[in-house]
Amino acid sequence: MLIDYHTHHVRCGHAVGELEEYVQRGIEIGLSQLGLSDHMPLLHVNPAEYYPEMAMAMEELPRYVEECFLLKEKYRGQIEVRVGLEGDYIEGWEADIEQIVNAYPWDYVIGSVHFLGEWDISDFRQTHNWDGKDILSVYRQYYDAVQKAARTGFYDIMGHLDVIKRFGYKPAPELENEVIQLENAALEAVREAGVAMELNASGLAKACAEMFPSRRMLERAYAAGIPLTVGSDAHDPKKLSENLDQARRTLYEVGFRELATFEGRRRTMIPLEI
Q: Are strands 115-116 and 119-120 parallel, antiparallel or unpaired?
């Protein structure tokens, strides 16, 4: 049973492909379940004044949900479509996030930290914000936000848990133990919250050249009993499930034998196939 729980489409502005193209591609490559999980609209910045093409417009959100559910029914029997959202965690905006999470009958919600204030640490156009920063301090701020996100109860899956490494900015090697402590604190928050996390294969194509999260975090997650799912984070139907074969093999090597799936925000574990 092959799955991909992290995808983006044209509505978000920085991806290509209609939702139905993803569904058709999923059928073509033999997926059993496809998660549609586009970005939550921007809340804490004015979209008209911020960087363009960051997320779907707020007025598009109900249309997105409606189309997802229409496709879920249209392709029933050919592929199991799951209706999801990648819901940014933004400190101070919890009430607004909760309102969106509770407004629709999602199958699952991914909790991801992209923003530290108005800085999207995952946006290639904003890497200049690293200039002059103490890298370890940024890591501390990021992992503190991950812990807070996990504790909200808003999310079913914690997304790309160490995406802070995406562009290759890392504290000096002699500070590695401190980084490990930050990672472990984030993982403990995920464990305590009782939520799943994803192995996001997209990092293999980024400057960090490593999946999110790292193998050492996966090993810690396995020891802690945290359920895992997998996602390609595809922004093009042609890239659906890209590198998920490697992701599944890595999980199997670490010791995982099941993957988390969701419907109606209820988790079901399925066998991990490699």
A: antiparallel
